[in-house]
Each structure stands twice: as structure tokens, then as C-alpha cells.
Amino acid sequence: MDKEGPTQRIEWKLLRRVFGQMRPHRAWFGAAVASTVMVAAVGFAGPYFVRGIADAAIAGDMRLFLGLVLGSLGFALFEAGAGYLKAVSVATLSATSVRDLRNRIASHIQWLPVATLERYHTGDLVSRLNSDLDSCEALFRRAPDYLHQPLQFVGGLAFMFALSPKLTLITCAMMPISVFVFERVVRPMQQHA
Questions:
Q1: Which of 19, 54, 108, 187 is the most exposed place for a label (fewest CB within 10 A)?
Q2: Distance of alpha carbon 124 from alpha carbon 118, whole angstroms
């Protein structure tokens, strides 16, 4: 279980090392990035289809209505396929990266002097390695989300701007107030909960 605290931050230097560890698995990394982009992009097609279906139903245009319903089903299947590809590629990428890391650590430990190893209890060393590798695996699994979340933000902003530029500008103007309230009220409540 991920027991990460709400205020824990990941340093960019650590992220560079994580991506460096994934470099030998470029194909799976590419599949994870491509599927992440597809999932983020296709997610914005849903509201367009819902709006079109509602407009066609109100207008009584059954041909357009059925076409949009079939189109939305096709997009839903495509989104499910992209989500499956993302899940498989991310799981494979993290598993192979952690496997490589385990092999490197085992090889490194074998070359350590006996005097160095005798300073540690075997159980403590194994427990610490397993704990650190579990944290690395969780980070490998979350790596594509560092691409997905900015894409969702930019795409959502573009979608809002296409629907209503005025309402989007009002919403953006309210964001600093929301951030201020979150930092001054919500975050202290989370820390004391």
C-alpha cells in the first residue's frame, strides 16, 4: 500500500534517474507514453458526443442521433483499448525496470567486502532493499501520469475555452483564490486529520 503523505514531493533529479532506468525498455516506454496520450485525448471526445447526441435528440434528427451514439460507442471501445494498452505497458515497464534494478543491486552486493556486509543484519538489509524497490516500482508505475495530468489540464482548458471563452477566463481568474483557500484552510485541516 502506498503510504505517501500529502506533502511528499518528488525531486526532478530523482525523476531523471527513474527515466534513465527505463531507457533500456524504450519500446514499452513508448507504448506507455503513446497510450497515455491516447487516453488523455480520447477522454475529451465524450462531452462532445454527449452534447451532439442531446442536440440531435432535441432536434429530432434520428440519423444524426444514431450516428453519434455509434460513434460514441466506437470511441468508448477505443478508450478501453488504449486504457488496457496503458495498463499493460506501464506494468511491464515497471516490472522489467525493477527486475534490472534488483539484478544491479545483487551484482553490487556480491562485490562488497565481507567486512562491509557484516555491519548490517541480513534481515534489515533485505527488508530495506525490498522496501526501497517497492517504492521504486510505485514510482515507475506513476511515471506516465506525469505526462497524463498536464495533458488533461491543457486539454480541459482548451475544451472549456472552445465552449465558452468568457466563462473560462472567469474560472481562471478564480483559480488563485481557490489555491489560496486550499493552502490556508484545506491543507492545514488535512495535516491535522
A1: 108
A2: 12
Q: Is the dihedral of CA 110, 115, 121, 124 positive or negative?
A: negative
CB 21 within 8 Å of CB 101: yes
Q: Which domain holds residue 30?
A: 12-143
pLDDT tens across 21-43, in order?
Answer: 777 778 888 888 888 888 888 87
pLDDT digits (tens, 9 = 90+) for 77-91: 888 898 899 889 888
Report yes or no on 128 lying in a domain: yes
Q: Does the pLDDT of residue 173 top 60, yes or no?
A: yes
Q: Tell me whether residue 40 is in a domain.
A: yes
Does 149 have pLDDT greater than 80? no
DSSP string, 51-111: HHHHHHHHHT-HHHHHHHHHHHHHHHHHHHHHHHHHHHHHHHHHHHHHHHHHHHHHHHHHT
CB atoms inside a 10 Å sphere around CB 66: 12
Contact indicator for 65, 56 with CB cutoff of 8 Å: yes
Question: 38 and 163 in contact (C-beta within 8 Å)?
Answer: no
How many independent structural domains does the chain possess? 1
Written as nine digits, the cell of 115 is: 567486512
Task: Classify residue 182 by its DSSP letter.
Answer: I
pLDDT for 122 beyond 80:
no
**CATH label of the domain that carries residue 45:** 1.20.1560.10
Q: Residue 164: inside a domain, yes or no? A: no
